[in-house]
Task: structure prediction
Amino acid sequence: MKYDFDTVIDRRGTDSLKWDVKENELPMWVADMDFKAAPDIIDAMNKRLSNGVFGYSVVPDEWYNAYINWWKTRHGFEINKDWLIFCTGVIPAMSSTVRKLATADEKVVVQTPVYTGFFTSIRNNGCRILESPLRYENGKYSMDLEDLEEKMSDPQTSLMILCNPHNPIGLIWDRDTLAHIGRLAKKYNVTVISDEIHCDLVEPGEEYVPFASVSDECRDVSITCIAPTKTFNLAGLQTAAVSIPNPALRHKIWRALNTDEVAEPNFLAVPAAVAAFEKGGEWLDELRTYISGNRKFVTEYVKDNIPEVSVIEGKATYLLWLDISSVSEKSKELAAFIREKTGLFVSAGSYFGKDGDSFFRLNVACPRSVCEDGVRRLEQGIREFKACGH
Result:
């Protein structure tokens, strides 16, 4: 490989949310990577830093072109410049949208288990979370479209937040499924916020489908949240975008983002995003291959050494969803036990909705040696948990 993903980077003492843990602990929970950013991105930021003046920034044409060209070449989808609005993050955009488009006590549909930030964006804005649980049968997930229609048909439902690809289960939704969502949203006058932040982190040879690309119905009801942050490990730079083809809807969200003051970039947000989309393709291709190797390693290790646990097959994200139901149906309790006994810090599935309590989420975007350490700790923790008579 041209790029180094094996070297362990010491992130302790850097005010890292992920690594703000005890000396013996190994965090494999929050969704950021333990790899250095692509050299071209670091070079672009260093160039900006070398100027020495860090005043207010504008959003130049280069930023729009970077998004447009990336989605056209990587995903076969043409985004118009007019559709794009800069924002500081996917969750800020989501929260602003909920505040603007839903009134207090209205309902927002989410498909659980799902990313925890969806819940806070809804709850913190006085709205009600309406869970449409995914079907889980024989170790595989699918959408329950009948239940989804029931939830969307509720007169109090004004929004749906779609996770595409889906975090934490790693599924890439197919075109027919997305088209069905578009039809339901149009039928019941529901606006779809599509979180597509993980769209580039798919298995080699796989491709995701942008929700807005599927049909006129999907395009007209969609607010798509996109960013280079998960793909290129830039979350701390607070750089993202929303793409909204529908002009009436776009004006409302433009107003919302500006009212909430989350529509202006810091001085590194633009050059980092532009460098990522213009020069980061080769780095990303190698990263995807490396993460795929980690996914396979962990899956095989768990199968061979922790047969009580199973890894749900996924084609996207660097997050593995582990079924621990044969060990415990209380994920918080088991996660706390494993952390105390081994130092391994994973995400308890209960944080992802009421259907997640028999699962863990494990972040494998790290050097292989760290993955090896992590699964050994997982094995040790589960052995000790069972030995204690749980």
